[in-house]
Design goal:
By secondary structure, the protein is mainly alpha-helical. The protein has 13 helices and two strands, in the order H-E-E-H-H-H-H-H-H-H-H-H-H-H-H.
Length: about 300
């Protein structure tokens, strides 16, 4: 290649780098810089105006704070039962919808609406659902049971968030399962039918084992999203109070409260990095356990 040819080639490549520059600049300013700055801040005593070196003291404050550990328990409790409920329900619904001949897209769209509904709007509506005279108590009344004080007792308040989260994430989980169901080779079902397998047996011994990768994916995504829970519990729990009795006080609420409530930004940054480590650990654990479980299906 001549020198002139090399110059033309570099000129063309340079133009493409110019198009990428705004995106790269945005990543540096809004992703890389906040991560680096918050890590630095986790070693500082800062109120947003003045700073001084504190070392690991911020991490010690977080890890010895009983309210932080309560937030950890609340977060894990809500996330665990949300995942435990939403994945099986989504898989059963996906199996039913996938077997439909007519109206499949309409039903999928109806269920997916919950996932794309803004969190603020959805949680506000659910405040009326769990009102003492709301839909939830009306449904319970049809079973002959008395009304439940959903948002005034710790356990029922947590289950209110769990039920809301199941409704919110059901559509997304269902779509993932439907996409995976459509990749199962039809030859497997045909071979099973020849061997005398009925639809239930085919579903148990063919369909479920083929869903292993989807279950692992949704479990990991469920933990990542659940450990970062904030908006719904903020509305259900009357802001950073986490009412009733701090039952809806999560780890992200703790971070927000220490940062913008007490103006202890160094402590908030340390708590954020502790949460980051917890998310990584649970992602790795969920992946390992999920693969082992999928192999046994």
């Amino acid at each position: 290649m001549t020198t002139k040819g090399r110059g033309v080639s570099w000129s063309r490549s340079y133009k493409w780098y110019l198009f990428l520059a705004p995106v790269l600049l945005g990543i540096l300013l809004f992703m890389v810089y906040p991560v680096v700055e918050s890590f630095r801040l986790s070693f500082m005593k800062s109120n947003g105006f003045t700073e001084s070196w504190r070392g690991l003291r911020n991490y010690e404050i977080v890890l010895t704070n009983s309210l932080f550990w309560k937030s950890v328990w609340n977060t894990f409790y809500i996330t665990f039962f949300n995942i435990l409920l939403v994945i099986p329900i989504a898989f059963i619904l996906a199996s039913v919808i996938n077997s439909m001949r007519y109206g499949k897209n309409l039903v999928k769209g109806t269920f997916f609406v919950s996932y794309i509904t803004p969190t603020i709007a959805a949680t506000t509506v659910f405040l009326f659902v769990f009102h003492p005279q709301g839909i939830a108590n009306q449904l319970i009344g049809l079973l002959g049971l008395g009304p439940v004080s959903w948002l005034t007792r710790p356990v029922t308040a947590q289950w209110s968030v769990i039920l809301y989260a199941v409704w919110k994430n059901l559509g997304f989980n269902m779509i993932i399962f439907i996409a995976n169901l459509q990749t199962v080779p039809s030859e497997l079902y045909e071979a099973a039918a020849i061997d005398g397998s009925n639809s239930v047996q085919s579903w148990r011994y063919i369909t479920i084992p083929q869903m292993g990768s989807a279950i692992v994916l949704l479990t990991i995504m469920g933990w990542i999203g659940g450990l970062q829970r904030f908006s719904d519990v903020y509305i259900f729990g009357n802001g950073t109070a986490g009412s009733p009795e701090r039952a809806l006080y999560t780890m992200v609420t703790f971070i927000y409260d220490r940062g913008f409530g007490s103006f202890e930004f160094g402590v908030a940054a340390a708590a954020a990095y502790i949460l980051f480590v917890i998310i990584i650990l649970f992602t790795l654990i969920s992946r390992k356990v999920g693969r082992a479980g999928a192999a046994r299906l």
